[in-house]
Specification:
Blueprint lengths: L14 H20 L13 H6 L6 E5 L5 E3 L2 E3 L1 H14 L4 E6 L5 H14 L3 E4 L7
Parallel strand pairs: 1-4, 4-5
Antiparallel strand pairs: 1-2, 2-3
Length: 135
């Protein structure tokens, strides 16, 4: 007969082991982010004229309202004028980013016409503006 002191250990308490793994993971994350600081170098200086010419690419906003009116930033344009103006902007900046904003009630064909213009002009950086879902 087995006495009361000789109970069987069928299950293992893994909570301390999980705590240890989480601490090790935290240490690993802190050490890897601390190690990615970069190398310090003495950077050369440039004249103010050179830095004034360098600008971030300006994102163009193309908006189409439910009535089908197209606007480039805030200026109303037709589909042909949109293509002409985007071609000029693309020539000045080869990596021209564009955001397409359309009303939720728009016809799909209007959006496709504008995307077709983007394709003909050669714009590859296109974003479609949306809203987060309502809670």
């Amino acid at each position: 007969m087995a006495s009361a002191d000789e109970k069987s250990f069928d299950d293992i308490n893994v909570t301390p082991m999980v705590d240890l793994y989480l601490v090790l993971l935290l240490i690993f994350i802190i050490m890897t982010t601390a190690g990615v600081q970069g190398v310090k170098v003495n950077l050369p200086s440039a004249s103010n004229k050179a830095s004034a010419k360098m600008e971030e690419p300006k994102t163009q906003a193309v908006t189409i309202d439910p009535a089908g009116n197209i606007k480039l930033n805030t200026v109303s344009v037709t589909l042909a004028e949109l293509e002409t103006k985007l071609s000029q902007l693309k020539a000045a900046n080869p990596e021209l980013p564009v955001v397409l904003r359309g009303d939720g009630q728009n016809q799909y064909q209007g959006i496709m016409n504008i995307l077709d213009v983007f394709g003909r002009v050669g714009i590859t950086q296109v974003g479609l503006a949306t809203q987060p879902p309502k809670k």
